[in-house]
Fold this sequence. Notes:
single chain; mainly beta; 15-stranded mixed sheet; globular
Amino acid sequence: MNSRTxxxxxxxxxxxxxxxxxxxxxxxxxDERVQRARSRYLSPEGGLLAELDSDFxxxxxxxxxxxxxxxxxYEEGVECCTENRLEVFHRDRRKTLEFRPSWxxxxxxxxxxxxKLDAISAGESQEFKFLIPSKLEVYDFRxxxxxxxxxxxxxxxxxxxxxxxxxxxxxxxxxxxxxxxxRRLMRYEGPSNLEDLQGNVPTVRIDYDYxxxxxxxxxxxxxxxxxxxKQP
Length: 232
């Protein structure tokens, strides 16, 4: 079996371009199928804001995951799956649901979109049930093409929207932009998953960077601590 780990980073800014937080992602693949994903959310000063751990035991669309928000002091996620049942939780609320193969939750949206990217780019819509832990319910959603990025011809914009037209008037708009050549997520525009203490959810633009991190120097000795071996 072929295994590999992918690491990348995200920078989240508000509508005015102010830096809100940074993301660090690490994804394990086996035979090019995602197995586990770990994400850390950091303040501009480097403090840990939240963590997300996802496992994909039976497919890409409905992971078992736990999101821990350290700022607002709560956890939410999905414990999946026993036969056709799962448990969804948010703060101190839990609910057991009978799920269907068309359900999607958490980072499953991202990996499902990658699998369907060619069809979406060709104009096909993909419909599914989206499980939202904070609501303890599933909703009808769809993903469809939002056209190519005007500045990057090989970047495909994908719209995630609730399926009922009436609710679309009030639901936040989500746009995810992918590179068709690499199938990597390059940009996200929409509501953050970092709720603050007051329950507010900011609208963000997150740009992703897949370049390798620079290597740290090999234990450099600070100039002030070096000893001069020459004798006077």
